[in-house]
Design goal:
6-stranded parallel β-sheet; 265 residues; two-stranded antiparallel sheet; disordered C terminus
Amino acid sequence: MNLPDVVFCHGMWCHAEVAPAMERTLVAAGLRYHKPNLPDHGSTQPRRRIGGYSMRDYARYVEEFVTARSLEEPVLVGHSMGGLVAQMVASRVEVAGLVLLNSVAPAGVNHIFPRSLWSTRHVFSSWPFWSRPQRPPWPVARYGLLNELDEPAAREVHATMRHDSGRAYSEIVFWWLDRGRTITIDRPVSGEKLIFASGRDRIIVPHVARCLRARYPEADYVALPDNGHWIFGEAGDQQVYRRIVEWIRRLPRSRAGMAEQAVAS
């Protein structure tokens, strides 16, 4: 069976190693799993320049990762901000599928709600916040990102969190002020879609997931009423990973894979 490559797009304040159990499940199923770190996300030591990275920089980096490795119609698995990165990439290259885990939505969707603002309040503590590196302190991360993990696991995750871009955050939250229309996606977004939405997510609230579902009405949609934003390591996470594997296995074979099979026969 011709299975596509999988590229994991991690979220804001994260890194490529945040989902080891998901990686193990997908690799055990025979999938080739790729996990690029976004620029300057490979170390816990912050670099000043990270504050100025744009969402366009992140999307370009993943697009170049895919094309440099000649990954034919991969599946992009994006968590949170990584879900928006995946959508931006899929509007520029052909992919077999998008798996969107508590994903940020493109321009046109409101991300400002009391819970989400409280979950990112640290961003506004430094001026100008839109150009500075940002990292959530423990109380903020515990409330907004890690609320459904037990405390030891949450503290372990928090210790590995990275600084991220104030500019990227601003492009997402204040998209209507962005003259560059950075997260506006006007082109068709390629690939089948699988959307997961957590009912206890305090940063990408369920309203955002409903808007994504409306944008992609053909998508498969899975509600996770008892999960929070993080998903990885939360209750029921193994069922999520198995659902992803089953969904990928049902995807139509890529044109490249069908051509290879025809040549071999």
